From TrEMBL:
Tree of life domain: Bacteria
Endpoints of the signal sequence: none
Keywords (A to Z) from UniProt: Membrane, Transmembrane, Transmembrane helix
Annotated source species: Mesorhizobium vachelliae
Protein name: GtrA family protein
Transmembrane parts of this sequence: 108-126, 132-152, 201-218, 230-248, 260-280, 292-315, 345-362, 374-391, 426-447
Length: 591
């Protein structure tokens, strides 16, 4: 089986070269994202999960026993991402590499592989969108966009890079479907896999499915596309359901992780559309009727059996956790908050998608969009709307913006080649500049430095929201006998990765008991904190003085334990380990 279309070998080679260049840059700079994990809690906990899996924890057991209140809690992540990382580590272990070397290899190889594949997919999708050879602008824009998103940097092994690759691949393959028959099936498989990896991509998966159904309704020739996509989507959802969920939990519905709810919707909508695309008459009215009937059946099933999943994802969250944790999670911020408090992030994440949407709008004024352009435009617009709600949506909109921006640059280039002029040459330069998100980030930094406007919130600067992310910061803690550690949630994943201790708190919405206990201890009076520490059997308290989460808690509760420790005012039942005084992480022993 070969990749469809022309120039795919050239695109693959360019993607490989771009990936190697970026890898070399990271290697020469000493792999900075491996030297300092900063706020990348998800990548640290992902490696902990892989270690647990390789250490004998059941494939079906997603408990994180070393975090939270007694007994831990069940994570909402998928083993699908753990698997390739574990296989890479096992391969290097079989070659005689040390455990640390094997893990480091996995932390470099996996995101780098995903980086190259995503560049290739975006190049192929850009070629389809433009209907012309846009290889050069596509490879440059995609490489730059993904580089500044940081999600493909060595050490970043959470699931966001996997989700972006699979979503972009599903879009590209749906664009390819008329000219390459297996593409629709593969598109559905990619859509099902990205949904199984995490619920963040649910809006994009829903849009892709709706697009496949709409194509079928509008054009009888697209029934093969709709059937292939829906069979791939429902088929992979069924396989993942059986392969990753223990039979005893098949009836359990979870709104934030792949479970009976997501499987039921995928199977019902997927197999239902496949049947409709096979049996429905060729008239537009018949196709529309069968598709609407299927939509009604799926909606009725969700309302009847899974009404709890129709609420907001954070509807049931404890208000204190929402206030003192979620409100400061950068990727969960809405556009208005990012625009006010983080102009650099706003410029890097929102301007190029907005320009891409404008380009598509201008195109609509002169002609109808082609099939491929329409699909890409819809997904870009949806991703941009999602990013207005939460900045995490901009990860997808920045990547999808590469398609119209590449076509725009290539179009100006063709005009300049046909009738050279200084205006067109200047236009090419300007088009390149405004299409790079790094340009806009630089403009925002320059503007901010001119007005000397400091961040207005404690955690408003993502570059300085968390310190104590270096492995060496945890050496003293790792040398102490294993116990439960009270620390801010932003230190939780690091404690698990670099030490043998348990962490009471961690930045995960399911860790309700542990995070509430941490808030009770750090924001309560020393006497109230002592009661929590005795109840949770805490042996050590760790403070990172540069961690803005602890600074924030101290400001919110000036009479609380966190504020007292930051002032150096120790209660009688705590003793500072003098060897850690003045170090990034200060450790206090419970008497």
């Amino acid at each position: 089986m070969t990749v469809p279309g022309t120039g795919w070998k050239n695109d693959l080679l360019l993607a490989l070269c771009a990936t190697l260049v970026v890898l070399t840059i990271n290697a020469v700079s000493g792999f900075p994202t491996l030297a300092n994990y900063g706020a990348d809690n998800d990548s640290m906990l992902r490696l902990v999960e892989v270690r647990d899996l390789l250490g004998g924890q059941s494939w079906f057991d997603l408990h994180q026993y070393r975090m939270g209140a007694s007994g831990g809690f069940v994570m909402h992540w998928s083993r699908l991402v753990d698997t390739p990382l574990a296989l890479i580590i096992m391969a290097f272990d079989a070659l005689g590499a040390s455990p640390a070397t094997a893990e480091r290899a996995a932390q470099i190889i996996w995101p780098t592989l995903l980086y190259g594949l995503t560049i290739f997919v975006l190049m192929r999708a850009s070629r389809r969108f433009a209907g012309a050879n846009v290889a050069m602008p596509a490879v440059i824009l995609s490489t730059a966009a993904l580089f500044f998103l940081v999600i493909y940097s060595p050490g970043v092994i959470d699931h966001h890079n996997v989700q972006l690759l699979l979503t972009a691949a599903s879009l590209w393959l749906l664009m390819e479907a008329p000219s390459w028959r297996p593409a629709a099936l593969l598109s559905g498989i990619c859509a099902g896999l990205t949904l199984a990896v995490g619920m963040e991509t649910a809006p994009y998966v829903a849009v892709l499915g709706i697009c496949a159904a709409a194509l079928f309704v509008l054009d009888d020739r697209e029934r093969i596309t709709a059937r292939g996509f829906s069979l791939g989507f429902a088929g992979i959802a069924s396989l993942v359901f059986v392969a990753t969920i223990r039979p005893a939990d098949w009836g359990l519905a979870q709104c934030d992780a792949f479970s009976a709810f997501q499987f039921a919707v995928a199977a019902l909508s997927g197999f239902g559309l496949a049947i409709a695309a096979t049996l429905t008459a060729s008239t537009t009215r018949a196709r529309l009727g069968s598709t609407l009937a299927l939509a009604v059946v799926v909606a009725a099933a969700v309302i009847a059996f899974f009404p709890q999943c129709l609420a907001s994802p954070y509807a049931g969250m404890d208000e204190r956790i929402r206030t003192y944790w979620l409100a400061d999670v950068v990727e969960a911020q809405p556009f208005w908050s990012v625009a006010i408090h983080q102009p650099k992030l706003m410029a890097a994440r929102y301007v190029t998608p907005f320009i891409a949407i404008l380009l598509i709008g201008f195109q609509l004024r002169s002609r109808r969009l082609r099939r491929e352009e329409t699909l890409a435009a819809i997904l870009l617009l949806v991703a941009f709307v999602v990013s207005l709600w939460q900045v995490r949506g901009s990860t997808f909109s920045v990547a999808f913006a590469v398609l119209p921006l590449s076509a725009w640059i290539a179009k100006i280039r063709l005009r300049a080649d046909a009738t050279p002029s200084w205006r067109l040459s200047t236009g090419i330069v300007m088009a390149w500049l405004v299409s790079l998100n790094a340009t806009w980030a630089g403009v925002a930094v320059a503007a901010q430095s001119m007005v000397q406007k400091a961040p207005q919130r404690i955690n408003s600067d993502p570059d300085h929201a968390v310190t104590c992310g270096k492995p060496s910061d945890f050496h003293d803690l790792a040398a102490m006998p294993a116990t439960t550690v009270l620390a801010s949630s932003n230190l939780g994943s690091g404690i698990l990765m670099f030490t043998g201790h348990r962490a009471l708190a961690g930045p995960y919405h399911r860790n309700v008991g542990g995070n509430l206990a941490m808030l009770d201890a750090f924001m309560g009076t020393p006497d109230a904190a002592h009661a929590v520490i005795e109840r949770e059997r805490v042996g050590l308290v760790a403070i990172c003085r540069g961690n803005t989460e602890e600074i924030s808690l101290g400001l919110e509760a000036p009479k609380g334990l966190a504020a007292a420790l930051l002032r150096g005012d120790l209660p009688a039942w705590l003793e500072l380990d003098q060897s850690t005084a003045g170090k990034p992480i200060e450790i206090y022993k419970v008497r």
